[in-house]
């Protein structure tokens, strides 16, 4: 695959954040109310809280996205990572993950957490490749999650 560019959020990219994530969540699970709120209103639910949203762009096409939100005490969470199905396995997810780790470090993160599901094996392999380690899962607000991983800085 030729050059994939990582770009920051701008309001005109919100529909891509929404559509890419709704596609994969709906494919494997069902959308929960917090998903809809974050995807339809990312400026209020993610960016206004100090978070970040970035995108992978290939040519003129937006092919992937991921977000970062603060959780307190130096912990940040990587959320809403998705890559368009036709571009999966071509490196966009890895580039997005690398950049979101860099952004978390710039923001002073001591730890970066993510929640996933054991049936998303390709995603879990990607997270391990990025340096995330599986940890004990506490009861959380995500109904579909049965895996928690962390990246320590």
From TrEMBL:
<dbReference type="InterPro" id="IPR000182">
    <property type="entry name" value="GNAT_dom"/>
</dbReference>
<protein>
    <submittedName>
        <fullName>Acetyltransferase (GNAT) family protein</fullName>
    </submittedName>
</protein>
<dbReference type="Pfam" id="PF00583">
    <property type="entry name" value="Acetyltransf_1"/>
</dbReference>
<feature type="domain" description="N-acetyltransferase">
    <location>
        <begin position="4"/>
        <end position="153"/>
    </location>
</feature>
<dbReference type="InterPro" id="IPR016181">
    <property type="entry name" value="Acyl_CoA_acyltransferase"/>
</dbReference>
<keyword id="KW-0808">Transferase</keyword>
<dbReference type="GO" id="GO:0008080">
    <property type="term" value="F:N-acetyltransferase activity"/>
</dbReference>
<dbReference type="InterPro" id="IPR050769">
    <property type="entry name" value="NAT_camello-type"/>
</dbReference>
